[in-house]
Design a protein that fits this description.
287 residues; Alpha-Beta Plaits; Arc Repressor Mutant, subunit A; 2 domains; five-stranded mixed sheet; 11 helices; 5 strands; PucR C-terminal helix-turn-helix domain-containing protein; CdaR-like_regulators; CdaR_GGDEF; PucR_C-HTH_sf
Length: 287
């Protein structure tokens, strides 16, 4: 089978799984074995989509192109994304769907570091924009096993993308599992959400801009990694002692432990609101 036929076969196969596979799990696994699908292997779906131009709703790279030109541009994007994901260390399978791309990413659910994965996706997004002026965002579905659950994870990833769109974000990476809480927060007027955010973090925002930025990034990663110092250090690419120093300083400023249940809940809510409001719109002002 030549490369073009293999490409079409792969796209057709994943399209069937997403739209509603008519066969059995056993048959779907048999066809998907060449892509690594197995009943006991954990994977998740990532939806990658180019950000649209606000005025037209069309992607920046394909607007005004013929179908043939758009196909060539799509193949170029496919190659760039494939190269970028090859450098993540994950085993990935890419396909084309809904005018964007799907990435089947294999992972051990117990070992999946969501914070680190999101950081890698954001790095890919920033790299594509910096080097190619391509603005891409990523939605991440929940982990699954088997073949017939591919569609559910992909739809979750699309919901995450749609949620980012509603927040007016560009070049973002969002997990689906935080969406329910996010929808509750969006019932609040934006000014009330921002007020809660600032009041929750006010004890930590009295220092210089660089220092409070480092402190907030550390605390966000700390909670994303379940208060694990080693995993937090890995996510931030700093030494463990740096994380220890920042955590201890935060606890000194707060007068309480970060692992305290009420403290942890308050910070998690504040950081979730930061995701909703957009950190770029929350430039902290020293008062």
């Amino acid at each position: 089978m030549d490369m073009e036929r293999q490409f079409r076969y792969k796209n057709d196969y994943f399209s069937e799984l997403i739209e509603g596979y008519a066969g059995t799990e056993e048959e779907a696994l048999r066809r998907g074995a060449q892509y690594g699908l197995a009943s006991d292997k954990h994977a998740l779906l990532i939806a990658a989509r180019q950000d649209a131009r606000p005025s037209s709703g069309k992607s920046l790279a394909t607007e005004g192109l013929t179908d043939y030109q758009a196909g060539i541009e799509r193949d170029r994007h496919y190659g760039l994304l494939e190269q970028a994901f090859a450098r993540t260390g994950y085993v990935c399978v890419m396909f084309v769907k809904h005018g964007g791309f799907g990435i089947l990413l294999y992972c051990e659910e117990s070992a999946l570091n969501e914070g680190a994965l999101l950081a890698q996706l954001k790095d890919i997004s920033e790299m594509l924009y910096r080097e190619q002026r391509l603005s891409y965002s990523f939605g991440v579905g929940n982990p699954f096993t088997g073949a017939l659950n591919v569609g559910a994870s992909y739809r979750e990833a699309l919901h995450a993308l749609q949620d980012g769109d509603r927040m007016g974000k560009k070049r973002f990476a969002l997990l689906y599992r935080s969406m329910d809480v996010g929808r509750l927060f969006r019932l609040l007027p934006p000014e009330e959400a921002e007020r809660y955010y600032r009041e929750s973090l006010k004890e930590l925002l009295g220092s210089g801009e660089q220092e409070h930025g480092e402190m907030l990034r550390t605390l966000k990663a700390y909670y994303e990694n379940h208060c694990n110092l080693i995993e937090t250090a890995k996510a931030l690419h700093v030494h463990r002692n740096t994380v220890v120093y920042r955590v201890e300083k935060a606890e000194k400023l707060l007068g309480r432990k970060l692992k305290d249940a009420r403290t942890a809940f308050g910070f998690r809510v504040a950081f979730a609101m930061e995701e909703m409001l957009g950190s770029e719109n929350l430039a902290i002002r020293n008062e």
